[in-house]
Write a structure and sequence with these properties.
79 residues, alpha+beta, two-stranded antiparallel ribbon, 3 helices, 35% helix
Length: 79
């Protein structure tokens, strides 16, 4: 779900978590570079993306939103 929401938020780019760029030996020599997967993107119409973003924002910020109480005292704006 986090990857799906991230794709909506960032314009369709699929986030692929990874934990490193390379493996170094004890002497500092690079033993292996870790290749990042090719960047993928899903397409969505700007209108559909905007509607989703507005709905997510409203759920967290507007009266009656399903997560308003959860994020009421959060120090940053949430969508």
């Amino acid at each position: 779900m986090a990857i799906a929401y991230a794709a909506i938020a960032n314009g369709g780019y699929i986030v692929r978590p990874h934990l490193g760029l390379r493996i170094d030996g004890s002497n500092g020599q690079v033993l292996q570079n870790i290749e990042q997967p090719a960047r993928r993107r899903v397409t969505m119409s700007p209108g559909h993306r905007t509607a989703r973003l507005e709905g997510l924002y409203a759920a967290a910020n507007n009266p009656g939103g399903t997560s308003v109480d959860v994020f009421a005292d959060f120090p940053r704006e949430i969508a």
